[in-house]
Structure prediction request, 302 residues.
Amino acid sequence: MSEKQLTDAFNIKEKLKGIRFLIGSGFAFSLMSVCVKATGGRIPISELVFARATISIIITRFFLYKNKINPWGYHRKLLIIRGLLGTVALFCIFKALTILPIATATVIQYIYPTFTVICAYIILKEYILRRIVYSIIIGWIGIVLVSQPEFNSNSTIQETILAITIAILGAFMTSLAYICVRKLSSKEHPLVIIHYFPLVSIPLSIPFIINDFVLPIGTDWLWIVGIGVFTQIGQICITEGLRLLPAGQATSLNYSQVIFASIWGFLIFQETITSSIYLGGFCVLISTIISISASKTSQAKI
Prediction:
């Protein structure tokens, strides 16, 4: 076997490994969503974020110590920014999940690839293709379709608009956080990147907990532990996946979370998945694919 064939075989193996990691992250994050939804809004979001961060920092520090890895990294400013963006995104995602059906909140979250392209255009002055405009239009049509059943629910229009706005803000913060992860993944160990998430989340959530603490009871403890464990698994998987695959391909594979979330919502919470949700989810997926193909084209021109 020639050197080129060996290289190709290695690359294929690495890509398959990346695919498994990203599907695994989608599955883990969907179970995290189930745990958040199962708390039923009884526990304040700040407590859920704090608990998730505490579990994460214990697990991460253990593996950092075990593998003798410097926990502070070398690009601390960017690591802190990633932690801050991820924390804000987590607050938004958790809040949206307590108000909206799992499928709706998850689909809206996956508009973040479009935000990523827009941010790259504004901040990095990257060329934006006409198809990106189409992608943005299709993506927002998807959000309108997915949100439609919520406007017909028992919630007031103001509550629905607020919940959808929070979900969209979460998607925006997620896009910025993923840009940081992609930039850091070639420079820092995955555990170091994950470590900075709870380092920022814990001090940010403490003031909110002091003012609004609720003691968990019964199964609340199980859901809280589940949030921490499943989010940690998802973080490890997605960080590894982003290291092994291009960001665009990783994004499309991570869309598997929408499928898993829809299944859990139907089976566990008896949430109805209407035709508008299916169509809206399809629009968001098409928007994502267009964004990915456009980003590849623009990269080829550079």
Notes: Residues 42-301 form one domain. The chain has one domain: 42-301. The first helix runs from residue 3 to 38.
